[in-house]
Design goal:
acyltransferase; FAS_alpha_su_C; fatty-acyl-CoA synthase activity; globular; Rossmann fold; Ketoacyl_synth_AS; seven-stranded mixed β-sheet; 1247 residues; ten-stranded mixed β-sheet; Fatty acid synthase alpha subunit Lsd1; single chain; 15% strand
Length: 1247
Amino acid sequence: MEKVQQNPHEHIRQQIQVLACYAGMDLREGARLAEEEKSRSAEMQTKLDSISTELGDEFIDGMQPLFDTRKARCFDSSWNWMRPGLLQMLAASLSILQATNDDSLEPVIKLLLELHDVCTQSLTRPPVYRELSAPTGPHVNFELDFGSDSTMTYSEVPRPDEPSFVDFVEHMRQQTAPDMPPLIHFKKQSGGSAWSYCAELSIMYYEGLSRISGGGLSFSGQTALVTGCGWGSIGADIVSGLLSGGAKVIAMTSSYSRKTTLFFEDMYRTHGARGSELIVVPFNQGSTGDIKQLVDYIYSNPGVDKGLGWDLDYVFPFAAISDIGSLATNLGSHSEFVQRVLLTNVVRLLGSIKDAKERLGYETQPSLVVLPLSPNHGNFGGDGLYGECKIGLETAFNRWKSESWQDYLSIVGAVIGWTRSTGLMSSNNLVAQDIERLGVRTFSTREMTFSILGLLYFGIRDIAYCQPILADLNGGFGAIEDIGNVVSKARISIQRKSSTLQVISRETCLEYAAMVPRGHSKTGATTDERPLAKHKHHFPAPRHYNQLQRLRHLQDMVNLDKVVVVTGYGEVSSYGNAETRWEMEAYGEFSLEGCIKIAWIMCLIKHFNGTLKTTGATYVGWVDAKTEEPIGDVEVKPHYEEYILAHTGIRLIEPEMAHGYDPNKRPLLREIQLEHDMEPFEATADEAATFKAQNGSNVDIWENTSGGSWSVKFLKGALIRVPIALQVDRLVAALVPTGWSPAIYGIPDDLAKQVDQVTCYALVATVEALVRSGITDPYELYQYFYVSQVGNTTGSVLGGTQSIQDMFKSRFLDKGLKNDVLQETFISTIQAWVSMLLMSSSGPVKPAVGACATTVLSIDTAIETIQSGKTRVMIAGSVDDFTEETTVEFANMGATSSSVEEFARGRTLSEMCRPCTSTRNGFIEGQGAGIVTLMSASAAIEFGAPIYEIIAMSGTATDKQGQSVPAPGKGVLTSAREACDNSLPLRLLNFDYRRRQLQRHLSALEALKQEELADLPTDTVELSTMRYAGEIEKSCQRQCRSLQDAWGNEFWKNDPEFSPLRGSLAVWGLTADGVVPWHIDGHVVPVVCQKWLTGHPKGPAASFMPNGVIQSLRTGLIPGNRNADNIDKELEANDYGLYLSKSIQTSGIKAGLIKSFGFGQVGDELLVVHPDYLLATLTQEQLDEYNVKLQQRSAKSERYWQDTLVGNHPFLQVKSHPPYTAGQEKSVYLNPLVRAKHDSKSGEYKF
């Protein structure tokens, strides 16, 4: 058989060779090339193996380049960062003063005025570096610590004899012995390579340090390069000092990460002075390529070449790597790399700078190079080539002359002494105290930095321009002989003390365990092994009459029917609900209770009450949703927090949370034309006919002989569409938490499948808003209000986008769909389901749509509806989803951030949305819902609903002519419109004046009422008299409310002398100055940019903002934008805005202004005021009655939350019938006085 098969194969090969020969082809050409390439590859591999063997992997891996200008971080917004610290101090001072008597005010005000004068004076002078901390010394404390193996602690303590750096300078200039130079001093080259103590230079140096410690040293307009400036290093403190002096600094880091950039961000915020700039770039000093690119970046043109265009004034090549443990007998690859970093590439860096300056003709301003030298020339031993490298750097003193560096570089050598807590010396901290007993001065990083920056004093600089100089800052280190042996002995002594204390500690613990019963603490109290979380629902606390005394002037001054308040709020966001989102926004972490709530939302845990399957034990508490293993309250956070943080907020798009959309495989159909006939496939007769109808002669169909089926064959030239998968560059979104499910809230599965996802979001957020209003059964509203007095303006930007996608895409692809998918695409359908499943209300319905400003538009519409008297309760807000279509089209518009580009710039997921920064690159799209419950103030007081905030003003505005639909306009500025003579005060803005006028008119009204009552006929029946008296009373009440409108709520309306904003504030006795405790004329107003955390969920973005303002009003805390790395220069002109990067706790917030913009020229705004201003309008009797109702609602609401968590009932309880029967329906609709009552038997509210 093999022979039979071999002959045909051989024949085929011969045929191929004949054809190849005929065609002029060499069938062996490819094989020969492959063999040659294989030989070259083997030769190259041999060379690579030889290099790897010779240099080692650490050397090769260590010199890999890191430099990337795309990852450069620039910080230059010192104009903004100088203010938050001051405001925090003012807020803290106010908090303290409010808790003390008036006697404390005078000295504090005096101090603040002095501070103000100092700040004013400093504006006329350049910024200076001054070391304001106190010198410290090493301290090791030995103590018994029961329950721990550690018996010694290291700390930095103030030096009693050096309260300031003025004293430090005095001590450093003193000689410790007659034949010894001072602890820090200067040396001069006395011939050859020898250096000797120079008293003249040293005195000049001490003089410079004294001046710096007193008046400071300015670096304004100067530039510096610093390498080796990681956390805890001398280089980091050098960068801080240069920034505080106004310098522009480029700092290099080899550990580029989010942690590193945050370190430099905070450094600049803390130390960046006026005119300073900090640029941070990844850099490997072991890479030759990085050195070349770095110098090119610094010296190249900022326009075409995108460089900095700097000429360096100072260079600090302080990058260092530890080589502890390397001896001369075992020098390895790491030691080779250390030498490259500490010596070879330092010289290479200086040479590159010299070359760049020479090439550009910078000959008149040499760069001052501070070389980091060391007294350790192998003294310690076991540190590889460290000593050799430091000695090798000293050759720069001679190169300065021999290689003609004079015109381009000045060399100052700094022999750095024992500096505690740096990367190289931190392991020796424990022995530093013993070393100082031998007369050696060890330094903190601040002390060494101060000494090094003193080398930049102008007198020292001038000398360095003429000759290299050497500053010996070793602190007497060189006076100790055999320092390595001394350190070893000190370390052995410390270890012995520690071991002795550990033995004593263990013995004591054993003795205690034998004497004290188990389960008791050392104090004798019984320990609680499993503490429980304390869930709170943050209901407003009752405010008592005396607490509102300062606002008592507001009593009876407003018409409560026309004041709209927020009584509840709810949301579905990427961080769960409103409270869990606030924890992340305000504090940056979840509390234990917050972790439990969001773990429940994500279906990670569930509450259990019964017998455990695994153990058979009775258990009540949380269990893991998958394994059903018990997990205590305090265990939830450590167990689930990492997963929760990775699957909440802004993160990579998860297909399961985005309706299956995978940005790495975005499906598309690509049209192709067949170049040959396809194989036939089987179809039904109807399907075959449709193929023929669409494709005509390009398809052939026939009935199969077997009958019942047809064959379809596409012919050459036919057009068909083939599915492909594209990778898009928008990979990140702010999706709802992974695992979010309608079922966890109690929405039945069949209902969840029927409605669009946005409806589920809206239902959940609405219930949360109702429960926060103290409403656990929506039908309770009809016990107080008529069914037409409850309305809804909930809207959306796009409505049911998943249903829209199904209706167009899925229907086009002939996928099976429900027949009523069309109804789920309507924006009005969302509120319809809310009404059908929860409310059964018959009030005004006004679904809002205003693009990304939809929520504020919804609230504005609801406010107008309440103030017009059409309703007393409104549900408002918006909801939107995230789909493939929205993210692709936003990307096509250039509105969203490119994830690929952001990753290339070194950005992490959490920092991709950076509003108000110079590096912002578009928003991050999100999804969710935000709902508020609005009531007239009179309705809220009557109902006993909590009042979270007053909506003092709402407004909308379009903008000027243009052709850009997305561009936000300035039309909302019209809320500040006014035309008045500022030379004369407007009496109507005087609250006391308006109050007097109102009292006069009310007195006149009361007199008129008495006249009307006296004129009633006395001969009529009592019933008629009572009716007429009632009519008079109603009329007087209407007129009273009109007077309150005229002198209170609406005194400013339709008067061009009062802007809506000024008038709305004046209603409550407020002005634009004073809405926050420190805000007086000229002071700043904090700007809160919430989208850094929540992303941009379109319509609900303007829902999360009012919710956040409510939480700020409640807590007095202003959340910061933790992604605000560098505020945009354009915003500096608007000097009233303050952009925070961290939260600030204030003593209270009075008001806030919310701005929202949407595509289509929709500009909206809300002015909200603290609820205390509303409560202050009530009499003591009214307030006491309201507080009773409020506490009852608080208890009911808290019970509802608790019962939901433990599974007693679902969070969302779908209604199965309206509060009236079919027979009652018409009578209820036609009787405005009919109200529902609570049926104790069924537990329901019924008419």
